[in-house]
């Protein structure tokens, strides 16, 4: 079945959805009905959109096009309003992560989806990896023995342009609206969501405690170097330690510490190492999975609204935490467009290995 799709957000990460919709359209799976965008379109966007309508008013565009599916890939603080517009129009929803900046808005989204009987997928791309499914099964079935904990380390670097790209970048609040654009809740949101999925603790009541340690190396509001330690209802300790100020970048690594074995998952590359063997797994995108689910409801959604509740508990803990502490300039180094915290790569790795916070490692 060919489904009519409206896309909200054709720039930023929304561009990847626009490109994917073009691929799916060529395959006869979807038809792009229109695009909601407030910024001027560049040449690529104009070419991909063609003669389809472009409007700044999403409800009006939805009323005019009557799509089967709405894709929302806009700034975090707009997610709740635009997601509601899609659902109110009677369309299924593909909502980019995170679901929103407030736990209360997540509850409202959950209720709206259930009340309308519509499908809603949240765009946690890593959860479409068969590597995550395989590791979650190994944890569930006891292949690694008793799980002492799950640690994730991430060391990326972002330039000044990353924080200049949009008014909301690196902000906790914008014009009175929560944004929560920190390392844990946006670029490394997949680290948190993947760890919870591996533990089988994705529900809103599955996170029973959460402590966060937020730092910033830059003159921004949000965190860029952070550590999270939570405990799940299963009794698992999960530590996520990340930075956007690495001297040497590396892909995030999730480690399961088991009494009978250890597993390492590079979730950005679908690489899983267990029992000394490394294998690369396949991945299905959230949008393709949603379309498959709509065609056949027996195909489960990778990341429905309910299964993002645990992540939203973490986001709420970050949002309500004290403002990030500023790392003293004496510990930092400026390298062109980058701010570097020397030695931070070893720090995040140790936190994930020892299931410790940054302060405990000092």
From TrEMBL:
What is the native source organism of this protein? Answer: Amycolatopsis bartoniae
> Could you tell me what this protein is called?
Oxidoreductase
Sorted alphabetically, the keyword list is: Oxidoreductase
- Source species, domain of life: Bacteria
**Which positions fall inside the Gfo/Idh/MocA-like oxidoreductase N-terminal domain?**
4-124
Could you cite one Gene Ontology molecular function of this protein?
oxidoreductase activity
Residues in GFO/IDH/MocA-like oxidoreductase domain copies: 134-263
Answer whether the UniProt record assigns the keyword Iron to this protein. Answer: no
PANTHER family reported in the protein's UniProt record? BCDNA.GH03377
Database matches in Pfam families: GFO_IDH_MocA, GFO_IDH_MocA_C3
């Amino acid at each position: 079945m060919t489904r009519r799709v409206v896309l909200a957000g054709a720039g930023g990460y929304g561009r990847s959805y626009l490109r994917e919709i073009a691929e799916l359209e060529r395959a006869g799976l979807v038809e792009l009905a229109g695009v909601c965008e407030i910024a001027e379109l560049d040449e690529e966007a104009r070419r991909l959109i063609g003669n389809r309508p472009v409007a700044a008013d999403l409800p009006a565009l939805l009323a005019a096009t009557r799509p089967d599916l709405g894709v929302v890939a806009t700034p975090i603080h707009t997610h709740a309003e635009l997601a509601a517009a899609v659902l109110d129009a009677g369309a299924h929803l593909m909502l980019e992560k995170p679901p929103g900046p407030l736990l209360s808005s997540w509850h409202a989204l959950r209720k709206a989806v259930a009340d309308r009987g519509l499908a809603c997928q949240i765009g946690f791309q890593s959860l479409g990896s068969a590597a995550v499914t395989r590791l979650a099964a190994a944890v569930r079935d006891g292949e690694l023995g008793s799980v002492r904990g799950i640690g994730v380390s991430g060391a990326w670097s972002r330039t000044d342009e990353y924080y200049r790209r949009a008014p909301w970048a690196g902000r906790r609040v914008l014009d009175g609206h929560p944004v929560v654009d920190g390392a844990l809740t946006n670029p490394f949101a997949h680290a948190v969501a993947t760890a919870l999925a591996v533990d089988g603790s994705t529900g809103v009541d599955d996170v029973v405690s959460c402590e966060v340690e937020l730092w910033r190396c830059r003159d921004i509001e949000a965190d860029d170097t952070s550590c999270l330690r939570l405990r799940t209802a299963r009794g698992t300790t999960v530590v996520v330690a990340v930075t956007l100020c690495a001297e040497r970048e590396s892909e995030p690594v999730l480690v399961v510490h088991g009494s009978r074995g250890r597993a390492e998952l590079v979730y950005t590359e679908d690489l899983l190492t267990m029992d000394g063997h490394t294998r690369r797994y396949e991945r299905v995108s959230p949008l393709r999975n949603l379309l498959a689910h709509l065609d056949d409801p027996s195909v489960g959604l990778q990341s429905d609204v309910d299964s993002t509740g645990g992540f939203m508990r973490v986001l709420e803990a970050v949002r309500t935490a004290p403002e990030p502490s500023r790392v003293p300039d004496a510990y930092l180094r400026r390298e062109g467009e980058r701010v570097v915290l020397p030695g931070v790569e070893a720090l995040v790795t140790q936190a994930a290995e020892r299931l410790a916070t940054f302060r405990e490692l000092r």
